[in-house]
Specification:
By secondary structure, the protein is mainly α. The chain has six helices and no strands. The protein has two domains: about 1-35, no CATH class; about 40-109, AhpD-like (Up-down Bundle).
């Protein structure tokens, strides 16, 4: 593999441990699904963040909150998504998500 800067997030996290998962992540998920023209990257980020929150899967939420910001979603919009989902997905999931968001957003300040 080349230097750290050229590695994808998946390669940095698990490249040596599970090359096939990295390949599927980089080529299929981010190389195909995320690049389809039927939805904008911004829309895909809203969907992904919402899905992670509603399912309670906060381990990848920090990464996707950051990606959502790169795709043009503001921190205020993301906080509002979490607040809105509190009443549909459940308060504990929203509280867990808002703590991830607080941590993620404070890193950039």
């Amino acid at each position: 593999m080349s230097n750290e800067r050229e590695l994808t997030a998946a390669q940095r996290m698990i490249g040596d441990f599970s090359p096939k998962i990295v390949e599927l992540t980089d080529q299929i998920l981010f190389g195909d699904v995320w690049e389809r023209k039927e939805l904008s990257p911004r829309d895909r980020s809203f969907i992904t963040v919402s899905s992670l929150i509603t399912s309670g899967n906060t381990e990848q939420l920090g990464f996707h909150l950051s990606r959502a910001k790169e795709n043009g979603i503001s921190e205020e919009e993301l906080k509002e998504v979490i607040t809105h989902l509190a009443f549909y997905a459940g308060w504990p999931k929203a509280m867990s998500a808002i703590m991830v968001a607080k941590d993620q957003f404070s890193k950039g300040k």
